[in-house]
Design goal:
- It is built from 16 helices and no strands.
- The protein has about 450 residues and is mostly helical.
- It has one domain (about 10-440).
- It is globular and about 60 Å long.
- The two termini are about 25 Å apart.
Amino acid sequence: MRIQLSDHFTYGKLLRFTFPTMLMMVFTSLYGVVDGLFVTNFAGKTALAAINFAFPVLNILATFGYMFGAGGSALVARTLGEGKREKANRLFSLFVYVTIALGVVFAVAGVFLLRPLLSALGAEGDMLDQAVLYGMILLVSLPFWNLQFLFQIFFVTAEKPKLGLYVTLLAGVTNMVLDALFVGLFDWQIAGAAAATAISQIVGGGIPLWYFFKKNDSLLRLGRPDFDGSAMLRATANGSSELVSGVSGSLVGILYNTQLMAYAGEDGVAAYSIMMYVSFVFIGIFFGYANGSAPVISYHYGAQNHGELKNVFRKSVLLYLSASVGMLALSQLLAGPLSTVFAGYDPILYEMTLRGFRIYALSFLFSGIAIMGSSFFTALNNGAVSALLSFLRTVVFQVSCVLWFPTYWELDGIWLSIVAAELLAMLMSALFLVAMRKKYQY
């Protein structure tokens, strides 16, 4: 039996409903890991460092899909909860078309701005050339990359989380197979990795576009949009936390690269790249649950069903805390094997990666509640608080720590900075969640 947004959620039903989205986010991260494995083993650490320089810049341009996915989905789910299905579909169509248009505009702008930006950030020589090549290829698929982010969330609102998972699996398998062909067999190195990723993004964004255009049995279908400026502003404001998180996260990543070049050179950037690939898998569980449960929260908020809102909130807190402890233990257990797989060919890089990851992974203990805070308020259509929490987590705390800690602990200080930042973000999220319980009655 299909689980509906209007249902009462037990632990089992909540996990069954959110599991496809969690698996979707984990698998999205896993095929990024495979990308990194092929690049580091077949193209070398310079190519891996080049990707880590280019990717944050490109990710900023793709974050707008995530913004309209989170902010628009909350508005559409709330509208469905109010019983206005036709209006919800017109709003859904508007957010999809705007996302496509922005993707095209940003792709064209990126062609002219990519090399100057990467050069200004400190990339030079062969690493700069490889970073530009990687970025130029991914710009081709940027509109679909935006759509992939958007549809990953809207599939849940449409009560089709499993279909979203299947699309992500197909995109991931495409990426992995093409990595094996382009990088492993044909030896196209970083160009092959970029082409494999670009094609997988076209698959991940194109198939949902086709699905929602045709007649389907979900709650949503693409059609004539409702050109509602007020709805656009509300979706933008409400999804601003995801935009802030994505953009500032990328900017912080750029700052990390700059600090690492100063304290450890290219090896430091390569080690950080490996940690990012692996950590995305762990953090993907938190983001997957957040995206999977958000439409449930928005629906019951729109329906004024405060009893179910309290039920989902309490269960979510316990699930986040349990997962945090489990992920910390698992990450420490797997630190050695993962470092060997990615960096075993270079003893210096291996030791740097292993030590760094053991420290960095301590942040998983705090990340769950930190992520929950922002996501929960987005689902409640409170974009201001959500954006504030995202801004504090990804800009204020991380920037302050990564600039300050290395002056005392050098390279270890860079790895410790994320742990301290996530701890502070968790405390701030907990403060807002407790302070606003009476207002939203959860």
